[in-house]
Amino acid sequence: MDRRVMKTRKEIRKALLSLIEEKNFEVITVLDITERANINRGTFYLHYIDKYDLLEKYEQELFEKLEHVALQYLKDDDTVTEFLQKRYPTIVHVFRCLQEERELLSILLKTRGIFSFQDRIKNVFFSIFKNHSPSTVTEHSFSYPLDFLGLFGSSTFISVLQYWLQSDMKQTPEQLAQMITDIIFKGPVKAFGILPPAE
Q1: Which pLDDT does position 45 carry in this prediction?
Q2: Most buried by CB count within 10 Å: which residue of 2, 29, 112, 127?
Q3: How far, in Å, CA of 58 to CA of 63, rounded?
Q4: CATH number for position 9
Q5: Which UniProt keywords apply (predicted)?
Q6: How far apart are CA 85 and CA 123, in angstroms?
Q7: Are 72 and 123 found together in one domain?
Q8: Which domain holds residue 66?
């Protein structure tokens, strides 16, 4: 992509982010964005149809990056064990991607909302699972409905994401991934070091 195009889009993103800190997205106009970004409206319309198209493109950009990261660690011939072992590096790289795209993430969460973001995450989860997971995994006999797994996974991910943002991303992606995989594989009681009562 041309450097001037990248610079313009970066300025538009920064302008929108600063504006949504001040007022609701619905009342923000293209003129507000262009004045804050110090560009003319014609330049804005070279890149986006309107402010809603801008959001659509931001969301698409972020989810394409997340999907690309998730697919890096999937192989057709993985066993169930290998598939599970690769969840740690996948989670690390997903959070690294979100850390790098913090501005974009903040814009989407403040405009689209948590529930919309969660729904999109859930859809991506199912799409990757159904279309790209090894057959040894997809053909596995699951104890509970997959739609419940998708709901549980996406809502947990969003809650962790909110916690991470509110704590100013204090934990590294590696630390977060370790916490999540510990809880998944050990269970919350063991992961938090709580011993069950003696029988």
Answers
A1: 96
A2: 112
A3: 9
A4: 1.10.10.60
A5: DNA-binding, Repressor
A6: 23
A7: yes
A8: 56-189
Q: What is the pLDDT of residue 195?
A: 65
Mean pLDDT of 13-19: 93
Number of domains composing the chain: 2
The residue assigned the tokens 């970066």 is 10
Above 70 in pLDDT, residue 30? yes
How far is the CA of 110 from the CAs of 99, 105, 162, in angstroms? 16, 9, 12
Q: Is 119 exposed, middle or buried (0-12, 13-18, 19+ CB in 10 A)?
A: middle
Amino acid of residue 133: S
pLDDT band at 53 (very low <50, low <70, confident <90, very high): very high
Distance CA 60, CA 133 (A): 22
Q: Are residues 62 and 31 in the same domain?
A: no
Neighbours of 95 (CB within 10 A): 24
SS (H, E, C) the chain: CCHHHHHHHHHHHHHHHHHHCCCCHHHCCHHHHHHHHCCCHHHHHHHCCCHHHHHHHHHHHHHHHHHHHHHCCCCCCCCHHHHHHCHHHHHHHHHHHHHHCHHHHHHHHHHCCHHHHHHHHHHHHHHHHHHHCCHHHHCCCCCCCHHHHHHHHHHHHHHHHHHHHHCCCCCCHHHHHHHHHHHHHHCHHHHCCCCCCCC
